[in-house]
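Per reviewer request, we include the raw input and output of the structure prediction for the construct analysed in the revised manuscript.
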Amino acid sequence: MGSEPGRGPWLRRRLAMGQLSLLAALVGTVLLSLDWQGSALAQQTIKTRPSLDALELACREARAQGDLKALKLLQLDLLRVRPAPQPLAVVLANADALMRCGAPDSALLVLNRYSPSPGAEQVQWLLLQWRAANGALDHRLAAEALRRLVSASGRNLEALLVPVAQDDKGRWQTRSALDLLAAHLEALGQRDQAAELLLSGRATGVVAAQRLSQAVSWSLSMSPQLRQRWLEQALAQAAAAGAWGLAAAVLDQQLALLADQPAAARQKLEERRRRLSRRLDDAATLNPETVRSPRAPGGHAAAVQP
């Protein structure tokens, strides 16, 4: 029995459309399933991803044990654990964890993933950038970060106190940005600029004595007469503050500058040094705490280290 004219092609088209609809439905179901599986996998990855605190703790343990291989792997984990984009708080926490894990170069990479807004964001970001650059011995970047920090904070260079290290109780010790910038300039070979910066400070007492003494040591172009004048001021500031160990170091610095001079030129300074030595001996006998070691805070050898 034959089919009606024209019915065959029409039936074939309907069957084909039905097959396409079924195929589309199947594909859609598969894609939805894959999307759900991918989302579930992503959520599971987030849940199983180690926290910054856990990685930082593992870093401390690896460093304490001297396990350099484990430390390197943990540093890589910290670099990858919070990929961009992330909010500023996460970026700063990630960079700080890398700093504590002994990876300042990686901390700089993490910081570069975020562009801070002017104001408080920029100040926080620049503070950590300076710490990372200083830790990585990138003195050029560290100097640039300090200059930008001064601009962002609205404070002058000497008044800006930068956190440099934490004590055993977690309290931050600070240094003036002026001293830090001078040290970076000296490390870059810009010794005269570093000396000029130290001489521009307005501090008095021990800080002034340290800066004057250090400026004389760093300067390449200062005349001998000017060196002695600055050191006389440093000696006066140290004496006014009762920092006799520092005063003795300044006198030794003056005598060293006169090493090739006749004995007559050195006589007065040598006598002052002997009197100060007797004073130091007497003070040490009566109260050792009154004599500041040259390497102690406030001592000559402790000056302007970043």
